[in-house]
Design brief:
With 381 residues, the chain is α/β, with parallel strands linked by helices. The protein is built from ten helices and 20 strands.
Length: 381
């Protein structure tokens, strides 16, 4: 198979030759050279990675009614937005509910070849977060609890060791030794839903935390003007930062400031999507929460102004960060495809001979429009 297109950041089209699921060769385009997909007016890039997906296309990953079929449906729909790898995300809930969801995920991964290729692991957002209003976000207070290693071991047991990322609050009792233990076992620890002091943040980073999860959201109100946890995390070069670029969670000028302060190489785009993403406006669930997605595509707790995940898709996230942060296409693609490789090496995120052919073919007439997506050389969309 030969796929033709321009790689963002380069001027001339190339032909990418794929055999047995891998990129074999990248050749400069020659006029009249044969190809199977693409064209000189289209772009080619590595598949996108989303580290925080709570649901998609009407499927709520946190619902007790989740099924392997629903997970498959959501994964196929994600592919249409250029996502080739993601972390299904489970939020704060009871021990029993979280075990239930993890078992469903493990069952699905055992039998579904598409999920096996796309799901690089599981992200637990909670339950070891701040119990305070504001930092807690919409996570239910009754299920927030202190870190307990035996509980995480049980979670890992039921999902066959697939938890790769955890978001927690480093200031809660027992968090720092918990971080050290989790990092020693290969997990990525994200800081989020927190009211941490500067000292707490320093200790967390020294213990091995490496990610600021959806930076700027679920933070205390009010915060000091200068000495606050957002400014501190922006200045900590050891931390990557995931940001939700829907223009709702962060105003456009804040997004621009974050990209400038953190730098292109330390930003990872995420959607924090819930079931209403890739679906029509209406009512959905996020675990035990009722969420209304309005005509403006904003997801809010029913009857309130409180945000509950997003309906952002990764193709739109890329377009938005280009427009809001005033950056070019190539660095935006880097944020969506490559940067997370520093946290999760399995992401890949580059088109290199010998690597898996995870490719996105797209148009860019001022906004990114996905035309086709391949995973391991197989055309899924």
């Amino acid at each position: 198979m030969i796929v033709q297109g321009k790689i963002p950041g380069t001027e001339s089209p190339v032909n990418i030759i794929v055999e047995r699921g891998k990129v074999i060769q990248i050749e400069p385009h020659q006029k009249g050279s044969p190809y199977d997909f693409g064209g000189t007016d289209l772009y080619l890039c590595p598949g996108f990675f989303d580290p925080q997906v709570n649901g998609f296309a009407g499927v709520d990953f946190n619902s007790p009614r989740l099924t392997p079929e629903g997970l498959h449906q959501a994964a196929r729909s994600l592919v249409s937005t250029g996502v080739t790898h993601f972390l299904p995300t489970f939020i704060t809930s009871s021990r029993e509910r979280m075990i239930h969801q993890l078992k469903i995920m493990a069952d699905a991964l055992r039998n579904d070849s598409l999920l096996q290729k796309m799901c690089l692991g599981i992200h637990l957002e909670g339950p070891y977060i701040s119990p305070e209003d504001g930092p807690r976000g919409v996570h239910l207070r009754e299920f927030v609890r202190l870190p307990k290693w035996e509980e995480l071991e049980r979670f890992q047991e039921v999902c066959e060791g697939r938890i790769k990322c955890m978001t927690l609050a480093p200031e809660v009792k027992g968090a720092i030794p918990f971080i050290k233990k989790a990092v020693a076992r290969g997990m990525v620890i994200g800081i989020g839903h927190t009211n941490a002091s500067e000292e707490d943040l320093e200790e967390a980073v020294q213990a091995g935390a490496r990610l600021s999860c959806h930076l700027g959201n679920a933070t205390p109100k009010p915060s000091p003007r200068h000495q606050n946890l957002i400014q501190k995390q922006l200045a900590m070069d050891q931390l990557m930062a995931s940001i939700i670029t829907d223009g709702i969670h962060l105003p456009f000028y804040v997004m621009k400031n974050y990209v400038r302060a953190k730098g292109i190489d330390r930003i990872v785009l995420t959607t924090d999507s819930m079931a209403g993403a890739g679906a029509s406006p209406g009512r959905y669930t996020l675990g035990d929460l009722e969420v209304e997605v309005g005509p403006d595509r904003t997801a809010r707790l029913v009857g309130t102004s409180r945000l509950a995940g997003s309906t952002l898709t990764m193709d739109r996230a890329i377009t938005n960060v280009i427009q809001f942060a005033r950056i070019d296409l190539a660095p935006a693609i880097q944020m969506a495809a490559k940067n997370a490789q520093k946290l999760f090496p399995e992401v890949g995120g580059e088109i290199i001979p010998g690597h898996s052919a995870d490719l996105v073919l797209f148009e860019y007439p001022g906004e990114l429009v996905v035309r086709s997506t391949w995973i391991n050389g197989e055309k899924i969309f």
